[in-house]
Amino acid sequence: MSTDIIRCAATLENLSQAIEFVEEVADRFELAIKKKFGLLIAVEEAFVNVCHYAYPDAEGEVSIACTTEGTELVIEIADAGAPFDVLSLPDPDTTSDLMDRQIGGLGVHFIRTLTDQVSYRRANGQNILKMVFLQTGEPPQ
Amino acid sequence: MTIQTVKEANATVLTITGRMDAVTAPEYEKTLNELLAAGETSFVVDFQGLEYISSAGLRALLATAKLLKTKNGQIRLANVLGTVREVFDISGFGSIFQIQDSVSAALADIG
Q: Can you tell me the distance from the alpha carbon of A116 to that of A98, in angstroms, rounded to the nearest whole number?
């Protein structure tokens, strides 16, 4: 088992740095390409949610811990904002037509759809979103 | 992300290359809003070179398409491929946008 952690200010300026960090872990883990694409979207959505909502009146930090164990890649995104479970939000209606389509809600839909498992917990004053990705594809030679 | 804009006879073609994420999506919205303000109302957006799109990119597409509709404009997407196509499918965006296989087919569809 190994864990890599990145910690940075929760601002969109740090998005590409965070994504590169997670991508490097996914590459070392040899996560299947399709899975990796889903992983990067799910991580962006979760990271951006923290940037937009965790610290409405102040600056704060976000951390991303990537743990690989066996065939699982576990990503935990944590912030120290007010208690908030992003998974409590409803999924958007993905069938309504253009003018009736709501602008929001897609981020959490992607988090739910693109992860193999996802859960929220509040611990040590932090919101922690745990996303699990299973390493599909052939084992390394 | 880069956006190249070419004015064809019946529409403006925007070729998007790179990543449409929370950082870059506002650029797309800004470009389209500027073209709209300049009087353009027909658009083809070519995704051939688009490597990645997140919900922020989809939101930008949706917001501009809604605005365009209120101005009786039209928009077609071309070359929505691979993983970008999958994002369209899981979000239901594949059915709210008119998608063509190529820029020339999209231009022909606008007429």
A: 30
Mean pLDDT of chain B: 96
Q: Which residues of B touch A97 (CB under 8 A)?
A: 96
- CB distance A26 to A36 below 8 Å: yes
Put simply, the answer to whether A37 touches B95 (Cβ < 8 Å) is no
Q: How far apart are CA B46 and CA B100, in angstroms?
A: 10
Question: Under CATH, which architecture does the B2-110 domain have?
Answer: 2-Layer Sandwich (3.30)
Query: pTM of the predicted model, to two decimals?
Result: 0.93
**The CATH number of the domain where A76 resides is what?**
3.30.565.10
**Per-residue confidence (pLDDT) for residue A141, from 0 to 100:** 41
User: Which of A129, A130, A64, A40 lies closest to B86 in space, CA to CA?
Assistant: A40
The rounded mean pLDDT for chain A is: 93
How many Å lie between the alpha carbon of A51 and the closest alpha carbon of chain B? 11
Q: H or E stretch including B103?
A: helix B103-110
Residue keyed to tokens 């597409």: B61
Backbone dihedral region for residue A124 (phi beyond 0: left; psi -120 to 50: alpha; all else: beta)? left
| Tens-place pLDDT, residues A81-113 | 999 999 999 888 888 888 888 877 899 999 999
